[in-house]
Specification:
Elements lengths: L7 H12 L9 H12 L6 E5 L5 E5 L3 E11 L4 E7 L5 E6 L11 E5 L5 E8 L20 E5 L6 H6 L7 E4 L4 E2 L4 E4 L2 H20 L5 E8 L18 E5 L2 E2 L11 E7 L2 E2 L2 H13 L4 E5 L6 H7 L5 E9 L6 E4 H16 L4
Parallel strand pairs: 3-12, 3-13, 13-18, 14-18, 15-17
Antiparallel strand pairs: 1-2, 2-12, 4-5, 4-9, 6-7, 6-9, 7-8, 10-11, 11-19, 15-16, 15-18
Helix pairs in contact: 1-4, 4-7
The structure holds zinc ion.
Length: 353
C-alpha cells in the first residue's frame, strides 16, 4: 500500500488565501485566477487547465487508463449580496446571492464593488438599529426590506451615493472573518465550499509528492455557480463514467457528520447518490483507515445533482468535510480537511471502475 502524505499546513494556507478572496455567485475573477495559479504551480505531468466561457476552471489530468473517465468537482462561489436599490437615505437595499438567514449577516462588514472596480466598505444592519432609540428592533423580523447597507462614505442621499459610482447590480462582498486556531479549527464564512476546493488541492498535492497520476483520465471542475443550482451542469466531457462531488457535510441535530471526519453523503433533497459510488467510497475509507461518517442531508443539493439534472450519464457520489453553522459564520477542523483530501486522493488512484 503506497503511503500518502496529506499536507494539511499547505492546504490550510491555500484555503485561508482563497477565503479572503471574494467570490459570491456571479463574481469569480480573483478566486478562479487564484485557484488556476495554485493548480498550475503544482506542475503536474500531463495536466492542462482551461476556463469555460462562463468562467469555471477545468483541469484535465491524463490518467493511466482512458476507458472510464472520471470527474471531480467543488465549487468556489459563495453567498453574498447585490445592490437592489439605492435608498433616499443614501443607504443600500440589497438582494441575496444564494440562500441564507438575514440574521446570519446582521452587523457583518462588507465591501461594495462598483462597475469600475472601486471598493467601498460598509456594514449590513437593520434600519434604525440603535437600542437607545428603537426598542422594537430586537423583535423585528429580518428581511430584505428591513436590512440595509450603511456605507463608510459621506452620503445621505441617493444622488450622493450614485456620485460615488455605486449603482444597482454592484456586488457586495461579506467579510469572511477567517481565523485558524491553535486547536486546528478554521472559523470563517464561505467554508462552503472553499474547503472543498482546498480538499482537491490537497489531493493533487499528495499525488504530486509521490509522483503518481490518477487511475483514469480525470476532469477537475472548479465551478462558479453552485449556490444558484447550475455550477455542475456543464464543463465535463460527455463520456464521464463517474463524478465525485466534494462539498461541505451538513451538521446539526440528528446528523452524523462532524468537523473531524469526511462524510459520504448517500442522499440529499435531490435523491440518493449512486450506490456503486457510495460503496466504492466506503470501501476506500475502510481499506485506508480514513475517518468517515455516512449521512443524509435534509435540505441540500450539490453540483452532482446539477450534473444529473442536466442529463449527465455518470455515476455520482458526494463527500466532504463537516461544516458547522452552514451558510452563517461557519467552522470546520483541519482533521476534516485531512480525511477528505485523503479519500479524494485514494479515489483518484483507485483502479476499479
Ligand atoms: Zn456548497
Amino acid at each position: 500500500m503506497q503511503p500518502l502524505n496529506i499536507d494539511v499546513a499547505q492546504m490550510t494556507t491555500f484555503l485561508v488565501d482563497l477565503l479572503n478572496m471574494p467570490s459570491p455567485t456571479g463574481y469569480y475573477v480573483e478566486a478562479i485566477e487564484y485557484v488556476q495559479r495554485s493548480f498550475a504551480a503544482l506542475e503536474l505531468p500531463d495536466f492542462t487547465l482551461s476556463l469555460t466561457p462562463k468562467g469555471a476552471l477545468v483541469g484535465l489530468w491524463r490518467g493511466i487508463a482512458q476507458n472510464a473517465p472520471r470527474g471531480v468537482t467543488a465549487h468556489v462561489d459563495t453567498l453574498g449580496l447585490m445592490v437592489k436599490e439605492i435608498k433616499s437615505s443614501g443607504r443600500l437595499k440589497t438582494t441575496q446571492l444564494g440562500g441564507f438567514m438575514w440574521n446570519a449577516v446582521e452587523f457583518e462588514g462588507v465591501t461594495v464593488r462598483t462597475y469600475t472596480n472601486q471598493r467601498y466598505r460598509g456594514t449590513v444592519l437593520p434600519q434604525n438599529p440603535s437600542t437607545h432609540v428603537n426598542r422594537e428592533i430586537a423583535d423585528a423580523k429580518r428581511s430584505a426590506d428591513l436590512m440595509e447597507v450603511r456605507l463608510d462614505a459621506r452620503t445621505s442621499s441617493a444622488d450622493e451615493t450614485r456620485a460615488l459610482g455605486i449603482e444597482v447590480g454592484d456586488f457586495v462582498f461579506l467579510d469572511p472573518r477567517v481565523e485558524v486556531t491553535d486547536t486546528g479549527f478554521i472559523r470563517s464564512r464561505h467554508l462552503d465550499n472553499k474547503s472543498g476546493v482546498a480538499v482537491i488541492y490537497g489531493a493533487l498535492l499528495a499525488l504530486k509528492e509521490v509522483g503518481l497520476r490518477p487511475a483514469q483520465d480525470t476532469t477537475f471542475l472548479i465551478a462558479n455557480y453552485e449556490e444558484v443550482g447550475h455550477g455542475g451542469s456543464s464543463g465535463f466531457p460527455p463520456d464521464l463514467a463517474e463524478l465525485l462531488t466534494i462539498d461541505m457535510a451538513a451538521m446539526g441535530e440528528g446528523q452524523s457528520s462532524d468537523e473531524f471526519s469526511v462524510t459520504i453523503c448517500v442522499k440529499d433533497t435531490t435523491g440518493p447518490y449512486h450506490f456503486l459510488m457510495n460503496n466504492k467510497l466506503r470501501r476506500l475509507t475502510e481499506t485506508f483507515n480514513i475517518q468517515a461518517k455516512i449521512d443524509i442531508y435534509p435540505y441540500y443539493g450539490s453540483d452532482g445533482s446539477a450534473y444529473w439534472q442536466a442529463g449527465g450519464p455518470a455515476r455520482v457520489g458526494l463527500i466532504g468535510p463537516g461544516v458547522d453553522a452552514s451558510h452563517a459564520y461557519e467552522r470546520t477542523h483541519q482533521d476534516g480537511l485531512l480525511h477528505s483530501a485523503h479519500l479524494t486522493a485514494r479515489y483518484l488512484l483507485d483502479p476499479a471502475s
